[in-house]
Design brief:
This protein is of the alpha/beta class. It contains 8 helices and 13 strands. The strands form 3 sheets. Strands 1-2-3-4-5-6-7 form a 7-stranded mixed sheet, covered by helices on one side. A 4-stranded mixed sheet has the order 8-9-10-13, with helices on one face. A two-stranded antiparallel sheet has the order 11-12. α7 runs antiparallel to α8. The radius of gyration is 16 Å and the shape is globular. The protein starts with a strand and ends with a helix.
């Protein structure tokens, strides 16, 4: 599904409970995360609905390197030559998007949380098991972001992965939280603000600590990698996520 203007000039493409975002800046476009392979066509259609062309994408920024965020990144790079940026801490898993650290055995989660089964099934149908990694990436550094469309500030939020980074757009009152803060956990089926479960998080203690950096942005809109956008202030979302803790 395509949701226009979930924040000023920021648009959401959602499929199989996975989100990616299109950021407009005049005639320039920034893509944040590349979802799953099936979202390639949907994202192109969304861009055309905005009156733009996929060739207007100047960069892809990955909040982290998990398979459900790398999705069609390799195809975007191959067919359109779009540069891909990711924090150096996630360079390895961007190239190998199934080789990532997690605290608990994710194979046990469907037994404990059967609500996750339909979600994981939808993700599988959308290509979750067939994601190609990308090794030709550029380092996401705070001092280079003024050149990116939308001029985001990079908010380092490790825990879910070593190099996880959120993107804050101060003039749009929005922060794209990736999986540092979600409103739907694919591994438990739980809705509402929280960190992703230990089934896919490298260090849940660190992930909870990183919520402080998100709250410090003071943004009204928290736009997560999974689940619905949150419009009641990121600080309130962080408070709820801390109360929930790790799963």
């Amino acid at each position: 599904m395509f949701h226009r203007s979930v924040a000023d000039g920021i648009h959401l493409v959602e499929h199989a409970d996975v989100n990616c975002y299109i950021v407009e800046d005049g005639g320039r476009l920034l893509l944040v995360d590349a979802g799953l392979p099936a979202m390639w066509r949907m994202t192109g259609e969304a861009i055309r609905q905005l009156g733009r062309s996929p060739r207007d994408i100047e960069a892809l920024v990955l909040t982290h390197g998990h398979f459900d965020h790398v999705g069609f990144a390799a195809r975007l790079q191959r067919e359109l030559g779009v540069p891909i940026y990711v924090h150096p801490g996630d360079t390895y898993i961007t190239a190998h998007p199934y080789r990532y650290k997690h605290e608990k055995n994710r194979l046990l989660y469907p037994i404990r949380y059967p609500r996750c089964i339909p979600i994981l099934t939808r993700m599988t149908v959308a290509g979750a098991l067939n994601v190609r990694g990308v090794s030709d990436v550029r380092s996401l550094q705070a001092d280079m972001t003024p050149g990116l469309p939308g001029r985001p500030s990079i908010v380092y939020t490790p825990g879910h992965t070593e190099g996880h980074s959120a993107l804050h757009f101060p003039d749009r009152d929005a922060v794209l939280t990736g999986d540092a803060l979600v409103t739907l956990d694919p591994y438990t089926g739980t809705k509402g603000p929280h960190i992703v479960s230990a089934a896919a998080t490298a260090d849940t203690h660190q992930a909870l600590e990183s919520l402080t950096a998100l709250a410090a942005t003071g943004a009204r809109f928290a736009l997560p990698g999974h689940g619905e956008p949150w419009g009641d202030g990121v600080a309130a979302a962080v408070e709820q996520a801390r109360r929930r803790g790790a799963s």
